[in-house]
Structure formats: structure tokens, C-alpha cells
Amino acid sequence: xxxxxxxxxxxxxxxxxxxxxxxxxxxxxxxxxxxxxxxxxxxxxxxxxxxxxxxxxxxxxxxxxxxxxxxxxxxxxxxxxxxxxxxxxxxxxxxxxxxxxxxxxxxxxxxxxxxxxxxxxxxxxxxxxxxxxxxxx
Length: 137
What we know:
47% strand; 7 strands; 7-stranded antiparallel β-sheet; alpha+beta
């Protein structure tokens, strides 16, 4: 198994940042490779993602949810992965978002270095989306 971890500071309060992250249907707004993300039930989600010119599908289960603190998941079908996103308050009503993921490298995922680069870009897009929403509210 391989892993990646990255964190970013978002200029918005933890309540708003956590709430936006739970709107999984909005993931394509900051993760362009996500072609579809839909809720199956209260704890299961299905996504279609494009990687390297191929489409991959997976179903995830939320295995831990601590409001305004963390969300953990694991795949129940598709490319094997699990992870957690943590939300920590920072001074000035800012929020540190830390994303950690463990994945099977032979399941269509990028190399760790390429995946980390993509993760940094996606978190940057999430930050921009979140700060635009926060500024306009």
C-alpha cells in the first residue's frame, strides 16, 4: 500500500469548511477528474473518475464522521483505498484541512509523487472555492 498526505489552510471558519466538504456532489468543482459523485445512502457514495484516459468506478463507505473534525472512508468496491480528511481550527477563524489517503498502487492510481502533486492542486481548488463562497456569504 502507498500513502499521500497534504494540508492546506482555508480562510473560512471550520463550520463552513466542514459543511462544504460534506457536499460530495460538489467534488467535481475542485476535482476535475471526478466525472460523477453521487450519494447511494447515508454512508455510501459512488464515483466515476478519469485517470490516465481511463474511467474508474468505486463505491466508498464513510466509516467515521465526527462533525467539524474528521471524515474517514474506505472503498467497498473498485480501486482499493481508504483515507481521512481532518478539519482543525486555526487562529483568525481559519481552518486547516488535512487529507490523508492509503491506496493500492496497482489499482490505477498514479505514482505517489504524481498523486501528491494532484492532491495539492485539488486542495488548492477547494481552498479557492471555499474562500469564494465564504467571501460572498
